[in-house]
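Per reviewer request, we include the raw input and output of the structure prediction for the construct analysed in the revised manuscript.
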Amino acid sequence: MAIDTKIWTGPGRPAVFLDRDGTINEEVKYLGSPHQLRLIPGAAEAIARLNQTGIPVIVVTNQSGIAHGYYTEDDIQDIHNYLDKLLADHGASINAYYYCPHHPEAIVKKYMVDCECRKPRIGMLSAAAAQENVSLSQAYLIGDKRSDLRAALNAGARGILVRTGYGRQTEEELLREAEATGAALVTNIVDDLAAAVDQILASTQQSQPQSVQPPKFVSTYRFHRPATDQRYPHQ
């Protein structure tokens, strides 16, 4: 479902944005079927801990496999439905999913868009901030790629790199660049999603009682992608 929104500039609640592949589930290149989906150990339990605090958990994922014709938007919904089932088995849930199906070199012509939603641009984060009443300045973005870190920086959120998925490769690239330039490596790097959530919960001032459950979203409204003609300002 495409939504038409603008960047959220007012007060809002904190949130944790999650990349999907390589952060929640094991990395599979162009994952296009629920049968390929495997949770990273500890990821579901980490999400459940965020759920218990009432902090919204929102997936933001680039899905250029749609643009390249490997799978469809309907396949993405099937995958997310199955991911919901796997997480529910551990008492965890995702508040909303946002995905970008575009790529400038798409095979499927309708997705050949130099869009604002593909990370490291901030369209998905901006759309979610408005739709879910989230303050990006109080938000975290956890992922395994440089595009996740850049998206967090561009949106004014706090980025955390996990070593799962492509994370170790990303870490090595950042270390080589830091050594070459003599600059300090300032990226926040942890082993996995569980470690990232440990860090977030240790630093957050969130004090909502654990008995309060996060809001539930009707399934037909939980799968979003920003409108292709919407322009999002960069910070």
